[in-house]
Amino acid sequence: MQISSRFSVAVHVLSLLALQQEDDVLLTSERMAGSVNTNPVVIRRLLGQLKKAGLVEVRPASGGTFLTRQPAAISLLDVYRAVEVVGEGQLFSVHDKPLQACLVGRNIQSALDATLQRAQNALEQVLAGVTLQQVTTEIMSQENLKN
Amino acid sequence: MQISSRFSVAVHVLSLLALQQEDDVLLTSERMAGSVNTNPVVIRRLLGQLKKAGLVEVRPASGGTFLTRQPAAISLLDVYRAVEVVGEGQLFSVHDKPLQACLVGRNIQSALDATLQRAQNALEQVLAGVTLQQVTTEIMSQENLKN
DNA sequence: CTTGCTGTAACTATTGTGGTTACAGCTATA
DNA sequence: TATAGCTGTAACCACAATAGTTACAGCAAG
Q: How many domains does chain A have?
């Protein structure tokens, strides 16, 4: 199955935060929801996870959300982990309880484990190598291509 | 979300086929289901996909399944693709229809695309580098560790 | 004190997964 | 040629995750 769009939505939201101007209008969950094209509650749930991961600070009642770090100090892996699309080391699900009386059954899990772990790490290392800063830069450069 | 266990089950089944002895009893879907600890229909559905991908040959009514290639010529990426856990280039799902009137909204998809593609490729290349032969070798060596 | 926003619970529809029963169709073999 | 046994597949179920929605309590700032 596919990795939840929570991840891409989170990057979208963080990009909005990274690009927000000080003197700009307040970025409320409703505004962000408009840009993402979803429901404000979906955004608020997401912000809850990003907050829990220490990536953003949300002003409780008055509204407004801000990054706690520079965009260059936030990797996509941080985001990926924050939204918990996949638990640590669990990208692949492996069938449990294979027949222990069978040669293959009792060894398949450990035989596969190292490879699956490496595959997952390979994916995560790519995400670790890209920062929010790079994403917003890419957004601006995509924008320029259109002119 | 996690990648379906169809993948690990497929590797399990293919390992059984790779290790089967000529003069051994017939490997029916029921036998394989026993080793995997699931239902025979689940196995037959899976074999249908592996057959479609040209990895195995199934004898229709009399029973019995066989690899069409040497285990060394089957990579885990072949298996991964065969069971269609993830469509080509679609490991990450990205929210569609973001607000086009917004700078971030109209550029986020193309800004993320290359990175997500690279991440997925990284994962797949690890799988491409491991063959069924290596898996069965690992199974035997895990077995030996237990003695 | 009121306005407006966040935080969260609760419910829904949709989708993918994996298990199960049932049965048609075929093939090797007796 | 009859039959036993296996495959192929449809149909259904339970379960879990996702994403959208309504509703509302709580609170902070003006």
A: 1
Nucleic chain C contacts, protein chain B, residues 39-58, CB cut-off 7 A:
39-42
In a domain, A1, yes or no: no
Chain C bases closer than 7 angstroms to a protein Cβ: 4-10, 16-22, 25-28
Residue B105 inside a domain? The answer is yes
Task: Encode pLDDT of A100-130 as tens digits.
Answer: 999 999 999 999 999 999 999 999 999 999 9
Instruction: Determine, for residues B95 and A8 on separate chains, whether the beta-carbon distance falls below 8 Å.
Output: yes
Nearest-angstrom CA–CA distance, A11 and A29: 15
Q: CB A2 to CB B115 under 8 A?
A: no
Query: What is the CATH number for A124?
Result: 1.10.10.10
- Look at residue B1 and tell me if it is in a domain: no
Nearest nucleotide by C1' from A64 CA? C5
Q: What is the mean pLDDT of each run of 10 residues along chain B (147 residues)?
A: 95 97 82 98 98 93 90 98 83 96 97 97 98 98 91
Nearest to A5 by CA among A62, A80, A71, A63: A80
Residue A23 has pLDDT above 90, yes or no: no
| Residue B107, domain member (yes or no) | yes
ipTM of model: 0.92
Q: For residue A33, give the nearest of A13, A11, A4 by alpha carbon.
A: A13
Amino acid sitting at position B21:
Q
Min Cα separation B126/chain A (Å):
5
> Which residues have a Cβ under 8 Å from the Cβ of A49 and sit 6 or more positions away?
A10, A82, A83, A84
Q: Which domain holds residue A80?
A: 6-145
